[in-house]
Design a protein that fits this description.
Keywords: ATP-binding, Cytochrome c-type biogenesis, Membrane, Nucleotide-binding, Translocase, Transport. The protein is built from 7 helices and 10 strands. The protein is an alpha/beta fold. The chain has one domain: Rossmann fold. A hairpin with a 2-residue loop joins β1 and β2. It is globular. Bound molecules: adenosine-5'-triphosphate (ATP). Adenosine-5'-triphosphate binds next to α1.
């Protein structure tokens, strides 16, 4: 973990979150806590607001009301800590197509820590990209590009991981490898919040359920568990 967290019985807490898009309520009165050593899945149909909720938690979306707390205090007082301690991986791979997997991984971990190239190469081999470490990412398949982004997780020491569609485009073996990585992370005391249309084979998963956008009877109150 990057740094000791003060009174961290919960890392993130959302209270009475409400978000509208284009005049439609995506969710309202949504409250939950993200505590160390837990994995939480944000669930709901297409368009229900899963990505929007993750982006709110990551501080990447301003179009909402309610309050988000970081370690018990309003998050806006601690943006520096939030940036250092919360990792967000979006549903796009977020890698540069002209660069190789090795160059991308160098860029992804740079700024937080120095990792020698042989260790980065080992990580790429671990995610099944051994033969492609020096090939431009534009020449990789969708699943291989996703693996480049996920290799970043092998070096991620942030206590909170927010993962949007981490399993997209991955084959069965890669899904199982990511599930093991997430389980290890949670066992070490990390907190993972993820969206996925694939039902992960993970024990003790918490759930935040969002309703169908545009169907007012089902969106009035989304339910957050673990709060
Ligand atoms: N950039 C945008 N501008 C306007 N509306 C948007 C934008 N992005 C998303 N929306 C709307 O917000 C709603 C929620 O989108 P969001 O991507 O959070 O849903 P989701 O549950 O993650 O969907 P999916 O399962 O398809 O990934 C959708 O109805 C969508 O139309």
């Amino acid at each position: 973990m990057t740094e000791p967290l003060q009174h961290a019985d919960h890392l993130l807490r959302a209270e009475a979150l409400e978000c509208e898009r284009d005049g439609r309520t995506l969710f309202s009165d949504l409250s939950f806590s993200i505590v160390p050593g837990t994995l939480t899945r944000v669930e709901g149909p297409n368009g229900s607001g899963k990505t929007t909720l993750l982006r709110i938690l990551a501080g990447l979306n301003d179009n909402w009301s309610g309050q988000v707390y970081w370690c018990g205090e309003p998050r806006q007082r601690h943006w520096d800590q939030v940036r250092r301690n919360v990792l967000y991986l979006g549903h796009r791979p977020g890698i540069k197509m002209l660069l190789t997997p090795l160059e991308n991984l160098q860029a992804l971990v740079a700024g937080r820590q120095y990792v020698p190239d042989n260790i980065l190469t080992q990580a790429l081999e671990q995610v099944g990209l051994g033969p492609w470490t020096q090939v431009p990412c534009s020449q990789l398949s969708a699943g291989q590009k996703r693996r480049v982004a996920l290799a970043r997780l092998l070096f991620a020491d942030e206590p909170v991981w927010l993962l949007d569609e981490a399993f997209t485009a991955l084959d069965v073996d890669a899904v199982a490898a990511v599930e093991r990585l997430l389980e290890d992370r949670v066992r070490q005391g990390g907190a993972v919040v993820m969206t996925t249309h694939h039902e992960p084979a993970l024990k003790g998963m918490r759930r935040i359920r969002l309703g169908a956008a545009g169907e007012p009877e089902s969106v009035a109150h989304a339910v957050g568990e673990g709060g």
